[in-house]
From TrEMBL:
It comes from Zafaria cholistanensis. The lineage of its organism: Bacteria, Bacillati, Actinomycetota, Actinomycetes, Micrococcales. Signal peptide: none annotated. This is AI-2E family transporter. InterPro entries: AI-2E-like. Pfam families: AI-2E_transport. It is found in: Cell membrane. It comes from the Bacteria. Residues 1-35, 388-420 are annotated as: Disordered. It is a multi-pass membrane protein.
Length: 420
């Protein structure tokens, strides 16, 4: 009996070579699964998991960016003037800094700079307007002769229209205008509203420009002070680098507009088109308005050539305008602008195209500077460049050095010397 008891309690070890691996026992109901078999993450390929992790993060960034763009579009009357004021302050800030170096008070330097800028723009527009008005007055007889030539071509050309048929077409066109008088009136009213918004935007732009030039350091210091203490150095350095990119963009845009004006003006002068000099000034000013500026100034150049020298000269002038504008938008601007703002020429072209698709003319105007600032800020933060910069040394009081005031929590923020 004891032998059988001893034999019954002996454990027999299975031979793994004979029986093979023992299958894992499934977990009991109600108990959490554990072990490598229950870890379903190992069943998903590593590439799929990485793609999924990137997908929801990128999707969240796109969604938030779209919401921000939509919110900004609802207050475009406020956002666009402020952004234009930032561009103008990037253009005029070196002048203000130079006047301060000559010991001119801050307020007087800002006032002189803005008055000189407005006087320059107003004088240029006045000269262009007066010259064009006097030129069109002298060309009026040629315009009437051109109208007579058009009527002669309609009656004696391939169309062979009689005077009665021409009058009938004119009467039908007049009836169409009278029938659509309500839509024309509504369009005029909407245009009046647009003009009112434009006037309000100009006043807001001037107001913001004054304070950007007068107290840009204090405004930037306040914005930096809103950030957490650990992020203030990075925010201040990234903002200063982004501001430098904006200044470079404005300077290069001036150069590109100058080349555009010289190209079209020289073409008009060689072809004998009247008013070539005011036309060049008009092209220079219109180059800062994407799409509409080039279209409007090019149409004026072709119209002058048509009225003064005939349709052959007008076609040649049209070809010159198209060549200059296409070279400026596809060669000069991508290459020169891309090098100045550290962007690839393809990125500049895509930024302008995408900005115009998303926000029209304002999008085309602000796409390149926004892309340049974003590129500079991202590179600065990714390289953690602020850690290698020396800490600011203590200087005179804020009233003398222009240093930003204390933050909301009482800690003095880092000065931003070049921020708007």
């Amino acid at each position: 009996m004891n032998r059988f008891a001893i034999r019954g309690t002996r454990s027999v070890q299975p031979d793994p070579a004979v029986q093979g691996p023992v299958p894992a026992r499934p977990p009991a109901p109600g108990r959490a699964a554990s072990g490598p078999v229950a870890n379903t993450a190992h069943d998903i390929p590593y590439g799929v998991r990485i793609a999924a992790a990137w997908a929801w993060r990128v999707g969240l960034i796109i969604a938030v960016s779209g919401i921000i763009v939509w919110l900004l579009s609802q207050v475009s009357l406020l956002v666009i003037p402020v952004m234009i004021a930032a561009l103008l302050s990037g253009l005029l800030s070196p002048v203000v800094v130079a006047l301060r170096r000559w010991h001119v008070p801050n307020g007087l330097a800002t006032g002189l700079t803005i008055v000189a800028f407005l006087g320059l723009i107003g004088g240029a527009l006045s000269i262009v307007g007066r010259t064009l008005a006097s030129g069109f007055a002298s060309l009026w007889t040629q315009a009437l002769a051109g109208i007579v030539q058009v009527e002669t071509w309609l009656s004696q050309g391939p169309l062979q229209l009689t005077n009665a048929e021409i009058n009938q077409y004119l009467d039908s066109a007049l009836k169409q205008l009278q029938g659509n008088s309500s839509s024309i009136l509504s369009g005029a009213l909407s245009w009046g509203t647009t003009v009112g918004h434009l006037a309000a935007g100009l006043l807001l732009t001037l107001f913001a420009l004054i304070f950007f030039l007068l107290e840009g350091n204090r405004i930037w210091g306040f914005l930096v002070g809103l950030m957490p203490r650990t992020a203030r150095a990075a925010t201040d350095g990234a903002g200063r680098r982004g501001w430098s990119s904006l200044v470079n963009y404005v300077r290069v845009q001036l150069f590109v507009a100058f080349i555009d004006a010289v190209g079209i003006g020289m073409g008009a002068f060689i072809l004998g088109v009247p008013l070539a000099l005011p036309l060049s000034v008009l092209v220079f000013l219109g180059s800062f308005i994407p799409i509409l500026g080039a279209l409007f100034t090019g149409a004026i150049a072709v119209l002058l050539a048509l009225v003064a020298n005939g349709w052959v000269n007008a076609l040649i002038m049209l070809a010159i305008v198209l060549v200059v504008q296409q070279a400026e938008s596809h060669i000069l601007q991508p290459l020169i602008m891309g090098k100045a703002v550290s962007l690839h020429p393809l990125a500049v072209v895509l930024a302008v195209a995408g900005g115009s698709m998303v926000a029209g003319i304002p999008g085309a105007l602000f796409a390149v500077p926004a892309m340049a600032i974003l590129n500079t800020v991202v590179r600065y933060i990714a390289a953690r460049s602020w850690e290698a910069e020396p800490a600011p040394s203590p200087g005179p009081p804020p009233s003398e050095s222009g240093e930003a005031p204390a933050d909301l929590d009482g800690e003095a923020s880092r000065p931003a010397a070049t921020a708007p």
